[in-house]
Predict the structure.
Amino acid sequence: SQQGEEDPQALSIQEGENATMNCSYKTSINNLQWYRQNSGRGLVHLILIRSNEREKHSGRLRVTLDTSKKSSSLLITASRAADTASYFCAPTGANSKLTFGKGITLSVRP
Amino acid sequence: NAGVTQTPKFQVLKTGQSMTLQCAQDMNHEYMSWYRQDPGMGLRLIHYSVGAGITDQGEVPNGYNVSRSTTEDFPLRLLSAAPSQTSVYFCASKPSLGTDTQYFGPGTRLTVL
């Protein structure tokens, strides 16, 4: 299984600060995706990084991937209260079936 | 496009009752899947389908049946509900097995008494 393990389990920051979330996995992957889940809602895709990429940006999101360490990090810059949500990583292997870890609960205080 | 829709939003069942959770997508996606989300457990894959007429088991298939007679619909059946099936259920789809980004429905919150 390519299930990712997110760290920390919970993160609380002040609005305007940066939030860094980490993901580790155990097997080789084709890509790694990050999803966000707002309270009571389904997951929404944020960003995908392929195994041959080291860094990718999308708006205030920056994701890095280190395949030698089997780890990824998601950085949200200049956080806003609306970023309060749970974040999940999904390392995806050849079978392309997405599996998810327990997620990270991010709280951004106004 | 409505995307992925799920009905009902909430459901309460008694132990032993049966019911079907509905999932539909209007994006012509071949791949559809069902997850359950429990506190502290993340999302776990129940069943998935790579196209009409084809289904397969995920991590936690016991107690659940699925069928895929059309591209649009992928219902999840609980034949005899148990309290352990109390959970939030999410349906998701993507264009095909080989594509990456998955689109999720809003979820069904099921309580089994």
